[in-house]
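Lab notebook, bench 4. Still working through the backlog of constructs that have no structural model yet. Next entry is a single chain of 343 residues. Request: give me the structure tokens for it.
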Amino acid sequence: AIFLGRGSRIVVWLYRWLVFRFMLLGGLVKLASRDPTWDNLTALFYHFETQPLPAPLAWHAHHLPETVLMALVVFTMVTELLVPFLIFTPRRFRILGAWIIMLFQFGIILTGNYNFFNLLTISLCLFLFDDAALGRIFRFARRPVGQGIRIPVNTGLVLRSLFAAIMLYATTDRLLMFFTPEGERDFAVVTRVFAVLNAANNYGPFAVMTTERNEIIIEGSMDGRDWQPYLFKHKPDALDKPLRWIIPHQPRLDWQMWFAALSTAERQHWFRRLLYQCLEGRRAVLELFRYNPFADKAPTWIRAGFYRYTFTSTEERRRTGNVWNRQYLGEYLPAFRLQSASR
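Model written out:
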């Protein structure tokens, strides 16, 4: 964006190259993973239920007919593996590709909460349109704008060309890594040199689909017998907790709890620290929760249970009002208390 301005067609094409890589890598990682849910078109049988923070329409999407869900998987693969090539075709097809990509991102927004991620992707698609197309959408697009910082034409062209050459060189290597070992790629050396800038990166969401949703429930107790749960602002815990749209907000703790449930407590050092600070009654930590059952006095004991969560059926939700069912799997972290000798 530093080099974006009048006469910067090179940079516009770099943005188009970015959108191309971004979408194509999303499909390539799914093929490279050989995950059976993508191979047999069943990935969306699980995705809406097991994604980090489902949006309100996720429950409804999960209950679509299986044939529809399989068709949506095909649409996903086509959008990520074939549609990006429309970016380098004549104007009409490029604009068609832009609308398909934006439709795909909008569908993700309707069913999941991924902060500003999808909004940013949609904004990048603006570079796939030209002034005439944007003028029909945004009437203000033809109004005069400020000149910004003036850079001599020749200097600006040299800087943009140099930047473009470096980026094309390094990012092409990122694509080739899916087809050729590093030792056989001429680009790999350049990629390593510029890796420190984080200017050229790989990308790939849900390469391996999560097929089960496990949740960690934190509970405290004053006597070690009567346990009360801490409730989070956004992640599933109470069975009747409604699903919400929270984009572009990124609830860091709720998000990290999803990743923690994919691992063990021993490998999540931050999680044990979180529980210690609940025992200490740290206000900054307790404010991250929607409900603190020990508002007057910090608990003596704390523990973390492990549960399997699944969406309720249509009949169950109509009868109980619950969004979730759950099954106790065991302890995620056994009960413990502060040791006076070390605190």
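Notes after review: The chain is about 45% helix and 10% strand. The mean pLDDT is 88. Flag for follow-up if needed.
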